[in-house]
Known about the structure:
By secondary structure, the chain is an alpha/beta fold. It is about 50% helix and about 10% strand. It is elongated.
Amino acid sequence: MEKEKILLADDEPNIIRLLSAVLKDEGYEVKTAANPNDTKKLVESWKPDLVLLDLVFKGYEENGMDVLRYIKKIDPYVQVVIITGYGSINSAVEAIKLGAYDYLTKPLKLEEINLITKRALEARRVKLENIELKREVERYKALIFPDIIGKDEKFLRALQTAKTVAKSDVNVLITGESGTGKELIANAIHKMSKRAGGPFVAVNIGAIPEDLVESELFGHVKGSFTGAYKDKTGLFEQAHGGTIFLDEIAEASPRIQVKLLRVLQEGEFFPVGSEKMKKVDVRVIAATNKNLEELMRKGEFREDLYYRLNVVRINLPPLRERKSDIPLLVNYFLKRMELKYGMGSKTITSRVLNIFMQYDWPGNVRELENTIESMYIMSPEDVIDVDVLPDNIKDKAGIATFSEEEIENLSKETIITLDELEKRYILKALDVFKWNKKRAAEALGIDTSTLYRKLKSYGISSPDK
């Protein structure tokens, strides 16, 4: 990993020496400038990630504000932290309006320097990652379907099959776990087909009471059963000229399977209680999260119906098998939440993303979307961190949480120092990743060099030494 670059711009040699020593010790690459001209030249040629910029350069017409404007014009993503005396705080606040990240007041405090530096660089990383993710989202949105996000090879193969089959009128069977986006793919196929001008009717067979499924799908005539006070048009008739999506097809009873087979073979059906046959022209896309072949072997699903439905099969991989898509999906859902709730643009920290990449997502893309929606609403900050992670993900990630009762019961004797807490957390990460320091550092959201320094300061050594 390349070292992050920090430019120190100040006309006081003592401050330059102090900051340079502190930041180099933290693992950054550091260069210095003592006047506005040298600062601007280094910004252009060296391209630093962060500039610590003095507000006043004695003996020069240009001041830090002028240099700040120049930096933001050259590269708006360079972070700038203003260094100012107490008497110039109003100017520092004005500098923030011009794009500075924050300001430091003299005399400088080492803890404050380290904290603001880390926060500024983290904010820059998040911003740049967000920009790249937006570019990737646009690239992969345009690749096949405009509203379906992904770059995983297996997922793209499934999308390519969907795009190809959309040109024809054959029946399609979509398989995959709950939450993988089966209805989304079915709708996309419809929109790209010659039936796009017709209706798209989606029905979840498993969500309808068994004694009402036939009436919902095929309609009924008045008086055909108790409660049938008037004629009802079924969903197949409503889908005439378009596409009907039958989700959870494995839940269809034997009686419904027979009627479905007739519709698929002949394009005709009888409403419940009617002797008058109706003809329909519909394309059928079915979906299931169950193993239909196994159900056929058990005699629970008709073989002839299976082959009528399974002309083309599309299998959607679960999210745990396409984790490279998680950053893209996170960014996409955050933008959707921004449009939905109007609470401004938000991003997630690298620590949250690391947790997302390690979590198995049993509820798949639907669970990820719900998680992002919850965190977007609950986070008071523009940068969403682990404090608003749902409890089930916190538990899986091993993030400690305390109830109000537990906090009330804590005594001074039971509270450990932050250093001890950090030491234990580092040891836990190392244990999880079998002492692979690079992976542990990534999970902790710190550089490998920072991890090595912390190991040295806490006297931690590898168990094999």
